[in-house]
Amino acid sequence: MKAKLPPLGTLGPFIALLLACAFFATQSDRFLTLQNFSLILQQVMVVGTIAIGQTLIILTAGIDLSCGMIMALGSIVMTKMAADFGLSAPVAIALGIAATALFGLVNGLLVTKAKLPPFIVTLGTLNIAFAITQLYSGSQTITDIPEGMNWLGQSLRIGGTNVLYGVILMLVLYLITWFALRETAPGRHIYAVGNSPEATRLTGISTDKVLLGVYVAAGVFYGIASMLSVARIGAGDPNAGQTENLDAITAVVLGGTSLFGGRGILLGTLVGALIVGVFRNGLTLMGVSSVYQILVTGILVILAVATDQMSRKGVR
């Protein structure tokens, strides 16, 4: 029976999510409502999309500290292009995503060509993206944007509750990326590089190309998250993205992806993002201070990493 069960790192996040929902359901009558679950999905929409790119990088045994600020830069680029030059929403959005993809390319080149540690590279580009965002925006929120940029922030009626188009897009992105990781050769190469870069290279796979592709793809996901952020708040905020990097890493770790690379399921990242969203929502309904919400999130991360360590020892 034990051999037939999924690994703890895979099953654990789902159990944690169910237990959290069960607990908060006993604490608030408003928790188990479709409207509240729709609100939770809205709250994790941006971070959940960023976490897709973060998962790809962590699967290769890397990490990206710059993801939140790159997302903020993308939102400023697309809103400034629309506001200052009168560009249509699709063109402005494409330019914003191109900017975030370019930052992903820079991260990838520094990791693959300069052989710098991902932690140091992305710590540097985090500060660079922050400075460019502040300088380019003049530290001002960009509100004069075309109506088309707000479309993903609109909702449709499903099962008696309103669901944002942006939430649907996020879920579709998870399904597509999950399928690509599971069923395609490039997806399997990502896992292989995370497990053993040297063994992967000896099989004839270019590890540098895989890593470069992963960082560029992550940049594209950050750009899509920029689009969702603009759609949700109706503006480009230069002060956004300052905590999203840690929130995305938290979602990945809680979802069971190993920080050592090579192990993890993308849909687990979505569960991890929902765990964070459920805890924050549930504690808010209980009237608990936001400081304690951050405390609980930190404890969850430590527990998730400890579980990962124990599962690795079990494999050995």
Descriptive overview:
This protein is mainly α and 316 residues long. The protein has one domain (39-304): ABC transporter involved in vitamin B12 uptake, BtuC (Orthogonal Bundle). Helices cover 72% and strands 3% of the residues. The chain is built from twelve helices and two strands. A two-stranded antiparallel sheet has the order 1-2. α2 (34-59) packs across α10 (244-254) and α3 (67-85) runs parallel beside α5 (118-137). The mean pLDDT is 91.
Outline of the structure:
The chain is mostly helical and 316 residues long.
Total domains, how many?
Answer: 1
Helix content, binned percent: over 70%
**Strands of the largest sheet, in order across it?**
1-2
Q: Report on the biggest sheet.
A: 2 strands, antiparallel
β-strand number:
2
Distance between the termini: 20 Å
Strand content: under 5%
Shape field: globular
Low-confidence stretches: none
**Topology order in helix (H) and strand (E) letters:** HHHHHEEHHHHHHH
| DSSP summary: helix tally | 12
**What class do helices, strands and sheet pairing give?**
mainly alpha
Find the CATH topology: ABC transporter involved in vitamin B12 uptake, BtuC
**CATH architectural category:** Orthogonal Bundle
Mean pLDDT, all residues: 91
CATH class: Mainly Alpha
